[in-house]
C-alpha cells in the first residue's frame, strides 16, 4: 500500500475559494491521503462549505481562538499521521498529478524534501507572472538569501526528518520553518514541472514585501541567532531577490 500523505491546511475566511481547493485535492490521482484542515475561527461560511463534503479523509478542526496561520498549521501537524507532509493553503490549487509525482520522486531518489514549479495567479487563478521555477537544489546557505520554497509546492518525508513546527511569533513563519528543516537535511530537490497554482490575493503578504523587511530581518536576528551585521546582509539579499521575484506587482 502507498504511504499516507498528510495535507496541512490553515483556513481563515476562505469561502470564496475553498471549494476550488477542495476539488483539487479530491481530484488527486494519489488517493492515500488525509487532509488536516484547521479553521482559525473564520467569520464567513468557510466551515459550512467544508462540512458539505462527506469524505472521511477530510479532518476539520475549528479553533476556539484565532491564533494565526502558523498556529493553525501546527494544530494540523500535531494531528498528522502520514509519512509525507504536504502543505496547501485554503485558497491554492494542485494539479491532479501533484501528490503522485512528488511522492514517486521522493521514493525513487531517496529525497527528504522536494519542491516543484508553481503558477502565480490572480484571484481567478489566471497567471499574472511567469511560473516560479524549481530549477535549483535548495540548501540552508542559498535559502538564507531568498526563499525558493512555497507551502503549495513543497513536500517532506517525516520518516527521514521528523516533523517541523512553525514559529507562532513570526510573520515569516514559512521561511523560518524551511530554514530549520534545511539545518537538518543537506538539500531539497527540484522537480521542474508546474503542478500547483498559488493565488496572489490583493491583501496577501507576498504583494507587500516592502512592508515586511523588519519581519525578515528578525528571521535572521531572532530565529537564526545571527549578528546585527550578518542579519542586515541577508535581509538586503532577500529584499533584492524579492523585488526581482515580484517587481511587476508591487503596490
UniProtKB/TrEMBL annotation:
<dbReference type="InterPro" id="IPR029044">
    <property type="entry name" value="Nucleotide-diphossugar_trans"/>
</dbReference>
<dbReference type="Pfam" id="PF00535">
    <property type="entry name" value="Glycos_transf_2"/>
</dbReference>
<protein>
    <submittedName>
        <fullName>Glycosyltransferase involved in cell wall bisynthesis</fullName>
        <ecNumber>2.4.1.212</ecNumber>
    </submittedName>
</protein>
<keyword id="KW-0328">Glycosyltransferase</keyword>
<feature type="domain" description="Glycosyltransferase 2-like">
    <location>
        <begin position="6"/>
        <end position="124"/>
    </location>
</feature>
<dbReference type="InterPro" id="IPR001173">
    <property type="entry name" value="Glyco_trans_2-like"/>
</dbReference>
<keyword id="KW-0808">Transferase</keyword>
<dbReference type="GO" id="GO:0050501">
    <property type="term" value="F:hyaluronan synthase activity"/>
</dbReference>
